[in-house]
Amino acid sequence: MSNITNIMIAGVGGQGTILAGRILSLLAQSAGYDVKVSEVHGMSQRGGSVVTQVRYGDRVHAPTIIPGEVDVLLAFEKLEALRMAPLLREGGRAVVNAQELMPMPVLCGFAEYPENIEDKLAAVTADLIMLDAYTLAREAGSAKAVNTVLLGKLSQSMEFTEKGWQEALEACVKPQFLPLNKKAFALGREA
């Protein structure tokens, strides 16, 4: 049995997946864990997929997660959640923003956005949390705060202290955006 926690963060360029990964990795490191992070940017500047993997535990040897061993999938968009869902371990948790962002092939008419994504995700994991993080982020003051809304929701089920989360936010978020992100985190935690 592994003492390593594997978190996959999936979204599209501009959604803050990399910042979320930095917050999680600093949080785990501050709690005394060995941490490894891997980022795949792809065509992120053009709205393409972005995946960040955060692994922490007593001793982590590699930054990438073996398929089928993702403990938590934190997805900033439904289609990205569906793409990464097969990597979840049995009993893994998915925390998913209910937002739909149309990828370029859909926008160009070459493909259709899949239907019934929530049902397809529920078939992969019974531990599925869907929330409208976009609306909560806008309530906090910016649609760009979807990442901290989702981290707030995720924080409910993790062993880290509220103080640890706040310190990680303070260390990773620029001071001018900190009040907004703290509000977004709180709204996600309460959701």
Oligomer: single chain
Task: Tell me the strand percentage band.
Answer: 15-25%
Task: Briefly note the CATH topology name.
Answer: Pyruvate-ferredoxin Oxidoreductase, domain 3
Class computed from helices, strands and strand pairing: alpha/beta
- Work out the count of structural domains: 1
N-to-C terminal Cα separation, in Å?
32 Å
Q: Mean of residue pLDDT?
A: 92
* Strand arrangement in the largest pleated sheet: 2-3-1-4-5-6
Number of strands: 6
CATH superfamily: Pyruvate-ferredoxin oxidoreductase, PFOR, domain III
Q: Largest sheet, if any?
A: 6 strands, mixed
SSE succession: EHEEEHEHHEHHHH
Rg:
16 Å
Uncertain regions spanning at least 5 consecutive residues: none
Q: Helical segment tally?
A: 8
**Helical content (DSSP H or I, runs of 4+):** 25-40%
Overall geometry comes to globular
CATH class: Alpha Beta
CATH architecture: 3-Layer(aba) Sandwich
List the helices and strands and how they pair.
Blueprint: E1 5-12, H1 17-30, E2 34-40, E3 49-57, E4 70-75, H2 78-84, E5 88-97, H3 104-107, H4 117-124, E6 127-131, H5 133-140, H6 146-155, H7 162-172, H8 178-190
Parallel strand pairs: 1-4, 4-5, 5-6
Antiparallel strand pairs: 1-3, 2-3
